[in-house]
Structure prediction request, 94 residues.
Amino acid sequence: MTEKAERPDVVWRLIGAVIGLGTGFVARKAIEWGWQKVTGKKPPADPDSLEISMAEAIGYAVVMGVGMEVTRIVATRTVAKRWQSWKQKAGGLS
Prediction:
């Protein structure tokens, strides 16, 4: 009985990892595209480089950090709600 209770947690972790990787990749590409459209320049490949201004490096770090975290939160909460809904429906069928 303990194994059955732990299985959904393992499944949820796998689903969360796959969703995290996918949304992270898409979010990063979208943020890079947006950065280029707004600034007219490619995103800094190496924000630590002294060739990049401090303002640009910090701005890019803030935009990327906030964008990635917001994407992670939205994706995780959306999938968690769907997972809970699915579990309730599946539990009701047994």
